[in-house]
Fold:
Amino acid sequence: MSNKQYGMLLDTTRCVGCQTCVIGCKINHKVPGDAHWSSVETIGNKVMYQPTGKYPNPVLAFRPRLCNHCSDPACVKNCPTGAMHKDDNGIVSVNQDVCIGCQYCVWACPYNAPKLDTEKKVMSKCTFCMELIEKGEKPYCVESCPAEARIFGVISDPSSEISRLIAAKHAQPLLPQFGTKPSVYYV
Structure:
């Protein structure tokens, strides 16, 4: 098993909340029903598209959310069948042939990333578009972002573009206190 770890940098100063990433992922992966492998939330407000603060200083900012493909994933540790697993690229995946749809992975995940496939009655989740990465392409959410708010790459390589940007921008993971060592960073 290699020590490669793919990751993503999400620049909340660039995200405009358009949800193109969400729709691109849902359509291209044919995510069934009401499930979404990614989402966008308004920072500081539970109501989408509602600013925080008061005139003359209101703030409207967005945070894309997706599986954090953690280095120490709680979903993998808590999966009773071993369906949730981490591959040699650091991608956390679900083997739907082994999954029983118990949803322990959802309860364990601080990011609420795994979603129930209501048609197959098993879990599904973001794969960082591994099928595209294997062809040298970028994930759908990265390619479709009109604001170029997403950078994807190998974060285990300190000389990679994404690693340099994470360091230069002092990017931080979301919810690091859960100890899962997320591979998605935010500015």
